[in-house]
Structure formats: structure tokens, C-alpha cells
Design brief:
By secondary structure, this protein is of the alpha+beta class. It has one domain (16-81). Helices cover 41% and strands 24% of the residues. It is built from one helix and two strands, in the order αββ. The chain has one helix at 16-49, and strands at residues 58-67, 72-81. A two-stranded antiparallel sheet has the order 1-2. The longest helix is centred in the middle third of the chain and has 34 residues, at 16-49. The radius of gyration is 19 Å and the shape is elongated.
Length: 82
């Protein structure tokens, strides 16, 4: 018996299930991208106005994704270069 998680030898391209997962994740990421971007921009502008940071600064920043149902708790770090 072949597992549905394994690709068929004659299969070309992603399965229907893979396409559903990909579409759901893309939609979620679009929503998160817009919300996170607005919040980051708002807080960066405020910090600059208050003199806490200035153009030319480099900030290590993290973004987390979690889901109890999936047992997922990941934080990805990167730098924001002003």
C-alpha cells in the first residue's frame, strides 16, 4: 500500500492536497504580511520620532508562527536595516 504523502513514480507536479495546502498557506501569509508590515512601520516611525533609533541603525527582529493544533512554535529572525 502506497502512502498518500509519497509522490507517485508516474506523477508530474504537486498533488491536489499539496495545492490546497499551498493555497491556504499563501492566503494566511498575505494576511500576516499586511498586518505585520503595518505594525512594524508604525513602531519604527514612533521609535525614530522618539529618538530611540535613527536612520542607519540595524535592528534584529523576529517573527513568530505558532499553532497548538500543529504543534508548531517557530520564530524566524532577521535584520531591519534603516
Amino acid at each position: 500500500m502506497q502512502s498518500s504523502a509519497l509522490p507517485n513514480k508516474g506523477s508530474t507536479g504537486p498533488s491536489a492536497q499539496d495545492r490546497v495546502v499551498d493555497a491556504a498557506v499563501r492566503q494566511f501569509m498575505r494576511t500576516i504580511d499586511h498586518a505585520a508590515r503595518r505594525e512594524l512601520e508604525k513602531h519604527l516611525r514612533k521609535a525614530i520620532a522618539e529618538g530611540k533609533i535613527k536612520p542607519g541603525d540595524s535592528l534584529t527582529t523576529g517573527m513568530g508562527v505558532s499553532s497548538r493544533a500543529l504543534g508548531l512554535d517557530v520564530t524566524v529572525y532577521g535584520k531591519i536595516e534603516l
